[in-house]
Amino acid sequence: MGAIDMGAWIRHGFIAWAALLLGQDATAASATLYDQIGGGAKMRAVAEDFTAIVLADDRINFTFAQTDTKKFTQLLFEQLCNLTRGPCQYTGRDMRTSHAKLNITNAMFNALAEDLYLAFDREHVPYRLQNRVMVLLAPMQRDIVKIGPGPRASLGAKVSPPPQ
Ligand code: HEM
């Protein structure tokens, strides 16, 4: 009996030791991107800044002429929250339907991406976390852009750190 008990003891001991050693990393790895960014208040601030920046951006603001911008901010918040695994449901329309009549070009898509980076900067969200959000948004380009050459990884283009 001794050998079996000893084996169990060693295994339990090892697991406890490994959990102690790895505990901190495991916690950090399981935090959602939403939490790492700063949770609801931060994400809402990003969404609000983003709407203000977009509405001041002459490259794309004309597309929002008929839009209820308060509702847009709320839906964008929900979408960012949901995509980053926060506790939110996205209640808006899908990207293809909601952008179908807007004749969006790749250049306009890139302009909007720049505006989102600016909004994240304004809220001091670290660049590496901004890029993780952008990676999640990039696949939407093919549903949103209607005009111009086929989708290219324009959001991905900024993923590498800026030269300095
Ligand atoms: C990854 C990029 C984008 C994301 C995540 C995004 C997200 C959204 C969301 C969540 C909505 C609300 C959907 C709804 O009304 O049910 C929306 C609507 C809208 N988006 Fe985008 N969008 C993107 C790109 C663009 C671009 C490039 C433009 C134009 C330059 C644009 C212009 C608009 C406009 C004008 C509306 C409101 C449409 C309406 O009032 O019916 N979006 N977008």
Structural commentary:
This protein is mostly helical and 164 residues long. It has a single domain (33-157), classed as Globin-like. The chain is built from eight helices and no strands. The longest helix has 29 residues, at 2-30. The relative contact order is 0.12. Residues 9-26, 150-154 and 156-164 have low confidence and may be disordered. Bound molecules: protoporphyrin IX containing FE (HEM). Residues 60, 63-64, 66-67, 72, 75-76, 79, 92-93, 98-99, 102, 104, 108-109, 112, 137, 140, 144 line the site of protoporphyrin IX containing FE.
Topology of this protein?
Elements: H1 2-30, H2 33-37, H3 39-55, H4 69-83, H5 95-99, H6 106-122, H7 127-137, H8 141-144
Helix pairs in contact: 3-4, 3-6
Protoporphyrin IX containing FE (HEM) is lined by residues 60, 63-64, 66-67, 72, 75-76, 79, 92-93, 98-99, 102, 104, 108-109, 112, 137, 140, 144.
Q: Give me the CATH architecture, please.
A: Orthogonal Bundle
Question: What is the CATH third-level topology name?
Answer: Globin-like
Number of domains as seen in the coordinates = 1
Mean pLDDT: 83
User: Largest sheet, if any?
Assistant: none
Ligand inventory = protoporphyrin IX containing FE
Strand content: under 5%
Query: In total, how many beta strands?
Result: 0
Radius of gyration: 22 Å
Structural class computed from helices and strand pairing: mainly alpha
Count the helices. How many?
A: 8
